[in-house]
Write a structure and sequence with these properties.
The complex is a heterodimer. By secondary structure, chain A is mostly helical. Chain A has a domain of 122 residues. Chain A is built from 17 helices and no strands. Chain B is mostly helical. Chain B folds into two domains: 89 residues, Cytochrome Bc1 Complex, Chain D, domain 2; 85 residues, Cytochrome c-like domain (Cytochrome Bc1 Complex, Chain D, domain 2), CATH 1.10.760.10. Helices cover 52% and strands 3% of the residues of chain B. The radius of gyration of chain B is 23 Å and the shape is elongated. Classes of the chains: A mainly alpha, B mainly alpha. Chains A and B meet through helix 1, helix 2, helix 3, helix 6 and helix 7 of A and helix 1, helix 2, strand 1 and strand 2 of B.
């Protein structure tokens, strides 16, 4: 079995799941703007749609990173196949079945009832089985690279730690906790240490890999920055979990500790931006290409969405008023899109066109879809920001009731739904383009 | 620094941060039972958590501000209704279509024991010490509006009634839902406060009427009770 073909399947499945995520998002935003009749709400309640929207997000991103991770392990080890393509395919099937069964189950009320970690226990076991196969397979691939070619790079090292932590951190989330405060503590250990810890490790390894391979920058510089960035991400991010313990029944010293580490969290993201920009500019013609554009905007929006926008809200005197409002939604969408989605799109374009043997990619469709998606996402972020500001002023500060404040947010949530539809249109073009990549024809120049 | 040792730049900060987190969490976890009144966490209360998870409430509602933003935060919702409004809160959950016409809630088939357990659980969460959040229920910032809650205190309404988790249990809790269900207009509410027996001759409430309130205060109180803020 050909390793590249298996990795290609990972990307195809990830793209299909990504496409499915979007209609649910539009439904969610539109539920705020319109008043759906009781039978619609009974059929697809907001809760179910939200569970589907978020679980699909996690699933497609993890599959994307796993496919990319296999390739990096292989390439960095100087190999032309992974340890076992068969196991990789088996793992894909297991995770796909676990995810899709779980998501269909949500419609029939089969759920653990905890946001993002709704998957029932039985499906959790399948996920763990898939994760164990992945860990064994990727470690064996890296080990083979070391034994055969004496190759084990900094990128592989960070990537390996990232995937190991991701798998280990899943475990606290599968149990039932009697005390709600303990429940959220475990929940944040999973979610926070994922997105501001292990996923960041994986993302910075992937970014470093793409920079190293595509720009021809000296490896030494890449390695140095990778270590420093990854170290800073974890140094600020691990204790930074404190910004989730402000209002959850934890002692109040978390207000100080959480805030002190959280204000530093944008720093590694700023470094990542600065360093990626410098490396991309090393090869100007690449910076202006489709993949270069995706990578550049990934680090920009990563810094703005996760660093600036997220960091601002972690300050306790801000968070007291903004916590649990649409401002969080605004930050979440921009941060995920910048930090992970755009980076994964770059991976898809680089690897899928390479697997198809395309030397000179026809980029027009990709560029158009990128512009539509990014424009729509920024617009959506601003609409959520408007809705959230109204919510903070009316509900939190003026003390209006929840429902009355929501009445005044309707229009902005409606605009967000429309921006979501725009995003879906852009995404449709990109998914189509990735499925049918082609060479740039000579006379089209 | 030599390239050989660069990985220390990564490993050392990570280990330091992880050690700090583990140390703090260890202390925190010891404090949590005190701050959450874990001794009151009986089997029946936990059954309420199980039921809330079964119906996936947390993907529309939030607890501690975490979850779905489609519906109000539930952490301290029990304070709004109080023990006197318990039956009303149950009815809101069991028959949402009766209470909500704009944004709707799914109608679930919740059993009697589940709804009772939910009530006990929500009563328990409403007393967790979570650094005074959300602002609406805050001691310091809560329910500013027109000073209605100060009136309730000043006029000793809370000796018999409950509001926002405070007060006595002799009379019903003064949630807006309860008020609007019991009176067909602000006027009838106003008349009732002046002379309760004129609206319901069996009422045990004392006639506070003219002696206790100025006209302005009565207006403010009626508006406050009617709108719930």
């Amino acid at each position: 079995m050909d390793s590249k073909k298996v990795i290609y399947f990972y990307f195809i499945i990830a793209l299909v799941l990504f496409s499915l995520q979007l209609p649910f998002g539009i439904y969610l935003a539109s539920s705020y703007a319109l008043s759906y009749p009781q039978w619609v709400v009974d059929l697809i309640p907001f809760s179910t749609a939200r569970a589907v929207h978020t679980n699909l997000l996690v699933l497609w991103m993890l599959l994307g990173f796993m496919g990319g991770g296999y390739f990096i392990a292989m390439a960095e080890g100087g190999l032309n196949k992974i340890f076992s393509p068969f196991l990789a395919l088996l793992q894909l099937i297991i995770l796909f079945i676990a995810g899709v069964t779980g998501i269909i189950g949500f419609f029939f009320g089969w759920t653990q009832g905890r946001p993002l970690l709704e998957l029932p226990f039985q499906m959790d076991l399948l996920v763990i089985l898939g994760a164990v196969i992945f860990l064994l397979n990727i470690t064996a691939t890296m080990y083979r690279g070391w034994v055969q070619n004496r190759k084990f790079s900094a990128i592989s090292f960070i990537l390996l730690l990232g995937v190991i932590f991701t798998a280990l951190l899943y475990i606290p989330g599968i149990f039932f906790y009697k005390n709600i405060t303990m429940d959220w503590t475990a929940w944040w250990v999973v979610i926070h240490l994922w997105v501001e810890g292990s996923w960041e490790l994986i993302a910075s390894a992937v970014l470093a890999f793409l920079l190293a391979v595509l720009t021809g920058v000296d490896r030494k510089a890449i390695n140095k920055w990778l270590y420093i960035e990854a170290g800073l991400v974890l140094f600020t991010g691990i204790v930074g979990i404190g910004h989730h313990f402000y209002w959850t029944g934890h002692p109040d010293y978390w207000l100080w500790i959480g805030a002190s580490f959280s204000v530093l969290e944008p720093l590694p993201l700023l470094l990542m931006y600065w360093d990626a920009k410098r490396h991309l500019e090393h090869k100007p013609e690449f910076l202006s290409s489709l993949v270069g554009t995706l990578m550049f905007w990934s680090v920009v929006l990563h810094f703005i969405g996760a660093g600036v926008w997220g960091g601002f809200m972690t300050l306790p005197f801000v968070n007291y008023w903004t916590h649990g409002t649409q401002l969080t939604v605004s930050h979440g969408h921009l941060a995920f899109y910048g930090a992970f989605a755009l980076l994964l799109f770059a991976v898809f374009y680089v690897l899928m066109s390479q697997f198809k043997g395309i030397k000179n990619l026809f980029e027009k469709r990709g560029v158009i879809s990128f512009k539509i998606m990014t424009g729509s996402m920024i617009a959506m972020t601003l609409f959520f920001l408007m809705a959230g500001t109204i919510q903070v002023c009316l509900e939190r500060i003026a003390g209006w009731s929840y429902v009355e404040a929501q009445e005044w947010m309707r229009w902005w949530m409606g605009f967000a739904a429309i921006a979501g539809a725009g995003f879906a249109a852009g995404a449709a073009i990109m998914v189509y383009d990735l499925f049918f990549l082609k060479e740039k024809s000579l006379n089209s120049k | 620094m030599k390239e050989k040792y660069l990985w220390l730049w990564f490993i050392l900060p990570t280990l330091i941060s992880a050690a700090v987190l583990v140390g703090l969490l260890k202390h925190s976890i010891k404090e949590i039972p005190i701050r959450t009144n874990a001794d009151l966490l009986t089997e029946k209360v936990v059954a309420g958590k199980v039921a809330l998870q079964k119906y996936n409430c947390n993907d529309c509602h939030t607890f501690f501000g975490i979850g779905g933003y489609y519906a109000p935060d539930l952490t301290k919702i029990y304070r709004k209704y109080g023990d006197g409004g318990r039956e009303l809160l149950k009815d809101v959950i069991l028959n949402p279509e009766k209470h909500f016409t704009g944004r709707r809630m799914k109608k679930f088939n919740i059993t009697d024991s589940e709804i009772e357990a939910m009530m006990d659980y929500l009563r328990w969460t409403s007393n967790i010490n979570n650094n005074d959040w959300p602002p609406v229920y805050s001691e310091k910032y809560g329910r500013k509006g027109n000073g209605g809650s100060n009136l309730l205190k000043a006029k000793k309404c809370l000796l018999c009634h409950r509001y926002n988790g405070e007060g006595g249990g002799a009379g019903p809790a003064l949630s807006a839902d309860f008020i609007r269900k019991s009176f067909d207009s602000k006027d009838s509410l106003r008349k009732f406060i002046i002379n309760p027996q004129s609206g319901n001759k069996d009422s045990l409430m004392l006639p506070y009427g003219g002696a206790e309130f100025t006209e302005k205060e009565l207006d403010d109180l009626v508006k406050f009770l009617w709108e719930g803020r």
